[in-house]
């Protein structure tokens, strides 16, 4: 995909977001200019988003030299990282902190090139333990307790 | 309280052992963040926000401010020893700093960078102490229309200064403002765009968005790269001192850079970076040997390094005196103040003198600490660069997630973090500037509240808003900032056409 197409897609997406905001804001009380309701500011912002998106759409279409929009560079590594983040967030409220954190650490260490499964496991344990000490013990952060209701 | 009394009072706050520790922790973490690639000062400030819960509001701000200006010191180390700017404001230092290092003058380059930062920090503290109360008193005459115009001015100037094409910058502003409308409306308290999610009723918090855009997005960018381990040029303690000639050539650039940086810092946008580029251009113009620039001229290190620290200090003024953040780092400080229940705005100095004066004085203490940290201990920080990338990445990843959760014990915030991270990564790929979005998100509630209050005040006759002199002046200045590049281009073309062939 070249940058022109990517830019057009992004501008189109923002146009939808702006349009959506205008549509949803129309459902809120508008009030009067002297006593404006909660719809006024979002309406203005939504309309401005639409205008800016249209300008970006034009800009993306007329740009002279579209560079490559390359998301394929190391795409598997990026996908694995994002999946690890998603898994961590999804598992945290269900099984608590320790297991998702260890899994996340193992994946991130591997994605960034640490060799040896045992070394990775040891590093993951140390970093997770440090996080527990810092956040749970020192800062008194209460992580969700495991419900074991996977 | 006069400025002198204020500074004395500020030192009595800054020198309390808890605040001294907060300051030391802040500048140490800031230096490390500046040296290491990855998270950046805004991400680090967001990450450490939960760590400030145990501190007083003054202590929290002292620590977070220390991270910000500490990162400016640290950023120059990698720029000089590796030709990799630790922070964007150190980009220009790579030109002459690295060349000096290659010629065996890494020590003097690091020394001058640290000294320049210290001098700029000192000038910044004096500027803050004297200009802050003056501005704050002036701002007491501001009503909602003036605050509305000031926020608009900030966003307009910001749109011009980030280097993005205007439509892209403007789009980031509107998207940031759109995100700020989620949750409770500031005047009536009615709920908007929550889609039934109870967690969204309080709005989209600034911290997860900033941490996502600056922390997670940076991590994804790092993962996309080649994962090459850095090999810094080593430097010994006895090699640090500059020669007499280098001293002589550094003095004026440091002075000019400090002043220039401080003044740039008052303006919205990535002013630390702009100040360094301007300082470099000025020094090159004023130099009797401009041909040495880019080949290891010490002025090319001294001026910009002073300028970036000066700008970092100057950027505190709009936040501490008006309660308006003009830079992502100030937005994080605003978030910290709000979390600690400090009401920001022109009355902050009067109502919370310990916060304002404590922070101002702590900056001097912090700059002294940084001078000690960055010269004798430079070898320790250089050795951090040998830390494998996978350790840095894994720590950043986990601490981003846990840090975000810790702020509000909300899983929704962590989802916002991830979405912001992926969005920030894609936005940078598409040449959008996420910093504008973050700042617009921070300014959104202030802008909306002042806009609605203004309309109430003038009973809907919006022309009355434009008739107020300060409001009109700010809006004209904002429009001028938007139109300036086009006008300059037009002028240059007219001059070129008028010139004989």
The mean pLDDT of chain A is 86
- Fraction of helical residues of chain B: over 70%
Contiguous runs where pLDDT drops below 50 for at least 5 residues of chain B: none
Q: What's the mean pLDDT score of chain B?
A: 84
Low-confidence stretches of chain A: none
Q: Helical stretch count of chain B?
A: 22
Number of strands of chain A: 0
Tell me the count of domains of chain A: 2
Structural class of chain A: mainly alpha
Proportion of strand residues of chain B: under 5%
| Biggest sheet layout of chain B | 2 strands, antiparallel
Number of strands of chain B: 2
Give me the strand/helix succession of chain A.
Answer: HHHHH
Tell me the Rg of chain A in angstroms.
23 Å
Largest sheet of chain A: none
Q: End-to-end distance of chain A, in Å? A: 39 Å
Task: Explain how this protein is built.
The complex is a heterodimer of chains A (150) and B (501). In chain A, helix 1 (3-26) runs antiparallel to helix 2, helix 3 packs antiparallel against helix 4 and helix 4 (98-111) crosses helix 5 (117-138). The mean pLDDT of chain A is 86. The radius of gyration of chain A is 23 Å and the shape is flat. By secondary structure, chain A is an all-alpha fold. Chain A has helices spanning 3-26, 40-62, 75-95, 98-111, 117-138. Chain A has 2 domains: 1-69; 71-150, no CATH class. Chain B is mainly alpha-helical. Helices cover 73% and strands 1% of the residues of chain B. Chain B is built from 22 helices and 2 strands. In chain B, strands 1-2 form a two-stranded antiparallel ribbon. In chain B, a hairpin with a 6-residue loop joins strand 1 (183-184) and strand 2 (191-192). In chain B, helix 1 packs across helix 16 (353-374) and helix 4 (57-82) packs across helix 5. The longest helix of chain B is centred in the first third of the chain and has 34 residues, at 106-139. Chain B is globular and about 70 Å long. Chains A and B meet through helix 1, helix 2, helix 3, helix 4 and helix 5 of A and helix 8, helix 9, helix 18, helix 19 and helix 20 of B.
């Amino acid at each position: 995909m070249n940058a022109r197409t990517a830019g057009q897609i992004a501008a189109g997406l923002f146009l939808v977001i702006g349009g959506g905001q205008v549509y949803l804001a129309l459902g809120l009380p508008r009030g009067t200019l002297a006593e404006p309701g909660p719809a006024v500011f979002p309406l203005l912002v939504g309309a401005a988003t639409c205008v800016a998106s249209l300008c970006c759409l034009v800009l993306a279409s007329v740009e002279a030299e579209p560079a490559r929009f390359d998301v394929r560079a190391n795409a598997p590594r990026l996908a694995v990282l994002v999946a690890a983040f998603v898994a961590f967030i999804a598992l945290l409220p269900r099984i608590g902190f320790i297991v998702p954190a260890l899994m996340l650490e193992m994946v991130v260490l591997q994605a960034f090139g640490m060799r040896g499964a045992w070394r990775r496991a040891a590093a993951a344990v140390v970093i997770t333990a440090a996080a527990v000490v810092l956040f749970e013990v020192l800062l008194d952060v209460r992580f969700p307790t495991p419900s074991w209701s996977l | 309280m006069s400025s002198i009394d204020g500074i004395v009072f500020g030192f009595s706050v800054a020198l309390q052992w808890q605040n001294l520790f907060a300051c030391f922790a802040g500048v140490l973490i800031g230096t490390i963040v500046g040296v290491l690639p990855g998270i950046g000062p805004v991400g680090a400030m967001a990450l450490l926000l939960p760590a400030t819960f145990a501190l007083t509001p003054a202590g929290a701000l002292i620590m977070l401010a220390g991270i910000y200006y500490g990162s400016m010191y640290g950023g120059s180390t990698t720029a000089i020893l590796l030709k990799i700017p630790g922070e964007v404001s150190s980009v220009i230092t790579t030109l002459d700093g690295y060349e000096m290092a290659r010629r065996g003058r890494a020590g003097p380059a690091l020394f001058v960078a640290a000294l320049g930062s210290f001098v700029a920090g000192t000038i910044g503290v004096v500027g803050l102490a004297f200009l802050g109360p003056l501005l704050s008193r002036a701002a007491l005459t501001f009503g909602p229309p003036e605050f509305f115009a000031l926020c608009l001015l900030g966003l307009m100037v910001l749109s011009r200064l980030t280097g993005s094409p205007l439509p892209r910058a403007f789009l980031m502003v509107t998207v940031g403002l759109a995100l700020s409308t989620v949750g409770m409306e500031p005047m009536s308290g009615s709920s908007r765009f929550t889609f039934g999610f109870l967690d969204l009723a309080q709005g989209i918090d600034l911290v997860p968005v900033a941490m996502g855009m600056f922390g997670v997005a940076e991590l994804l960018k790092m993962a996309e790269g080649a994962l090459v381990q850095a090999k810094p040029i080593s430097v010994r303690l006895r090699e640090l001192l500059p020669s007499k000639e280098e001293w002589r050539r550094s003095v004026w650039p440091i002075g000019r850079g400090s002043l220039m940086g401080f003044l740039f810092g008052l303006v919205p946008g990535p002013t630390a970076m702009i100040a360094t580029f301007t300082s470099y251009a000025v020094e090159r113009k004023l130099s009797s040997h401009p041909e040495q620039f880019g080949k290891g001229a010490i002025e090319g290190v001294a001026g910009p390094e002073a300028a970036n620290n000066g700008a970092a200090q100057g950027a505190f003024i709009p936040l501490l005196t008006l309660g308006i953040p003009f830079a992502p780092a100030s937005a994080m400080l605003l978030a910290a103040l709000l979390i600690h229940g400090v009401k920001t705005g022109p009355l902050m100095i009067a109502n919370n003198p310990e916060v304002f004066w404590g922070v101002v004085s702590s900056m001097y203490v912090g700059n002294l600490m940084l001078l000690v940290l960055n010269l004798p201990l430079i070898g320790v920080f250089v050795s951090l660069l040998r830390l494998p990338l996978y350790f840095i990445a894994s720590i950043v990843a986990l601490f981003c997630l846990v840090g975000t959760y810790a702020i509000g014990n909300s899983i929704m915030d962590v989802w916002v973090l991830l979405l912001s991270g992926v969005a920030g990564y894609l936005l940078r790929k598409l040449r959008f500037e996420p910093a504008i979005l973050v700042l617009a998100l921070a300014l959104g509630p202030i802008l909306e509240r002042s806009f609605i209050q203004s309309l109430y005040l003038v009973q809907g006759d919006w022309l009355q808003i434009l008739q107020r002199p300060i409001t009109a002046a700010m809006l004209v200045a904002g429009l001028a900032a938007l139109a300036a590049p086009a006008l300059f281009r037009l002028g240059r073309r007219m001059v070129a056409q008028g010139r004989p062939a």
